[in-house]
Amino acid sequence: MPFTATPIVGGDAFDQACRIGQEADRQLALIDDFAGQLACLRRHWDSLAGLGWLAVAVPEEAGGAGGTLSDLAALAGGAGRGGLPLPIASACGVIPHLLADQPELLPGLAEGQHRIAFVPAEAAVDEATDVPRLALDGSLTGAVVGIETPPDPTHLLLVLDGAEPVLLLLPASARGIAARHYLRIDGRLAADWRFTGVAVEPCWILGRGEVVTRRAAEAREIGALLTCVEAVSAAGALLEQTIDYLLNRVQFGVPLASHQALRHRVAEMYVEYENLRGLILQALRAAGAGDGLSWRDIAFAKLRLGEAGRFIAQSAIQCHGGIGMTEALPAIRLARRIMMAEFEFGDRTFHAQRLLNAGRGAA
Amino acid sequence: MAAAIDYEAFRAEVRAFAETRCPPEIRAVVATYRKLSRKVWYPWQRILFEHGWGAPGWPKQYGGTGWDLKQRHIFDEVMAECDCPPQYHHGLRHIGPVILEYGSEEQKQRFLPGILSGEDWWCQGYSEPGAGSDLASLRTMARREGDEYVVEGQKTWTSHAHESDWMYTLVRTSKEAKKQQGISLLLIPLNSPGISIRPIRTIDGWHHVNEVFLDNVRVPVANRVGEEGGGWTYGKFLLERERLGGANVAPALRNLERTRELLARELGGERHELKRAMLEERLLLAEAELRGAQALGQEAIAAVMEGRPLGLLPSVLKLGTSVTFQHVAEVALDAVGERLAPRFRPTDAAGPNADAPGIEWVQNYMYSRVRTIYGGSSEVQKNVIAKQLFGS
Ligand SMILES: Cc1cc2nc3c(=O)[nH]c(=O)nc-3n(C[C@H](O)[C@H](O)[C@H](O)COP(=O)(O)OP(=O)(O)OC[C@H]3O[C@@H](n4cnc5c(N)ncnc54)[C@H](O)[C@@H]3O)c2cc1C
Questions:
Q1: Homologous superfamily of the A212-362 domain (CATH)
Q2: Of the partner residues B274, B339, B340, the one whose CB lies closest to the CB of residue A352
Q3: What is the DSSP pairing of strand A116-119 with strand A166-171?
């Protein structure tokens, strides 16, 4: 029996997420126009909101399911395996965590009334002067680029750095916000936003100071960890699909799987995959043990995702030959997704820097 | 004996020409990794043609320059250094030399001038869904009917078919003979009834390759090059001619230089200090490899000019340079990835970020993966090398 990947966290939620992911990926591959793509993603977003995904991490007293990180990992893992092109890590993990102190917002969030795009403090900007800033008169100015969004976002949740960090929930329709929406190469929705003197109403400011910094840092760890879960799960599926392709593709009268060069390459992919999986399991276990998130485990996992994820994705493309260079196969769409995941919630040098800084601090 | 060639003077002449005559907008396409299409290539070929440099590799009698191998190498090198497009290869470097070697005089008169002037655009119909590395298993059939062949089958991965006039095509003319011996080489006009072309999108969102379907396409026997059943030999001749392609390391070095400029631009300031140091080291290692390859390339050219055997050099160069090129593309991706990977969209898509400054580095990374797949994949090159090293 050829290899089958073991989920990081299996179960019904994992299976459901995987099924929805496969369906969305299959449908999206057949649509060419942006309006159609958006409608397709919106349909899947609505159905997962209806299934209660957005409520998983919301406490029971606020109308949520009061789930744990492990419940989120089941969703993220299933979504990764199925190739679901929606921002699960943000929507189910990061945003509920950032809003955990907002009892009046949580029920609506759990019910799926809001579709919120998350703009971290380290969001990409084209010019250093674009970093969003809240002026003393309460106006917001700046521009961020390449922000992953849910379909038709109703709000933007921004973390603003500065002398006093601010958590800001901005209605997407507020005056002074210009948006450019598009579909990225991996089938995900993204937007560039420019804020020109947006008059921020006091009630949009959800928090200030130390507590924002702490929550934002925790939220980023959650985002990085769930992204790792999603990507390693995609890598497991990719490994299966690559093996399947090599078993069935015949050249020179024999299946490609009979060539030792390719068998060894797949064996190396597997070793990388297991190693990465080990790190991620470890980070999840540490979190489950109740000591909070272990930033160090997460930093190592994300660092490895950069290395191992890319190796696995590139090897899968190589093993497929010409068809590996196309969008035709789900396997290759997974490979491309894994390549992109590296840049979310801090790339490898971002996490390397954290580890080095801590090492220096300790010495 | 002819007077000795002053290669340095020649190099200077080529450089002066490239710098003054290659239009800046064409060089910009190369420098920013935008797609080279017929629209970009053609005017450049026209300029070269009018200068008498249309076909560096052809004999003078047919409009070539008559340059020796070293001159041709210098020409290619300088072109790359100046961001001039490499000449469109399918006519000039692939089918042209085959026609020169094996075509009839009538075929030479008919096909070579259009290639030389750039009026005719060619593509290569070799690969099929079931025949990639194992090309000899191709199944597209050509049945003889009087003065015509009737061709039935499918080609795939056909680069540029959507903008070409002609496809030089390997077809099976006999099922009885040994796999390789039943293959013939036909020159097929792409506007023939029965041909349909369907685009294939590559992972970087480009339309570069196509599927070409041939449904009872009638091709005059006069469009067959050489003997019936000789196609494999001609195909191999073509590959032999291309074996020195890897000797030109200049494009890879130019790419490395551009990447170094990118690091300086993108990763200034203290915040990026670590990233910049890590990426600069990787670039330096890549540069060392490319310099080694460049030296080997010169060795290869000297060997051919002196009539010595090339041995494994072409495989060594192809294998090594393709991987190093990929490493450099990864360095660039790592430099811009956080800012630009999440904005990357199909290159020909209109709208936001299709032309965001620097976005081409993401595309370049994705497309660079093909380097170890086409033109003899890395696995196939390693098989060739190992077979010779082990003597079996
Ligand atoms: C962008 C692009 C442009 C192209 N342009 C053209 C064109 O213009 N015209 C044209 O005719 N073709 C073209 N090709 C086709 C190209 O030449 C083939 O993709 C290539 O020959 C590999 O064949 P394949 O895709 O069928 O892969 P396969 O042969 O199926 O190979 C799949 C994998 O198996 C490996 N493998 C195969 N055999 C062995 C072995 N014996 N031992 C170990 N490993 C092995 C390969 O290295 C590869 O990793 C193009 C391809 C691409 C992707």
A1: Butyryl-CoA Dehydrogenase, subunit A, domain 3 (1.20.140.10)
A2: B274
A3: unpaired
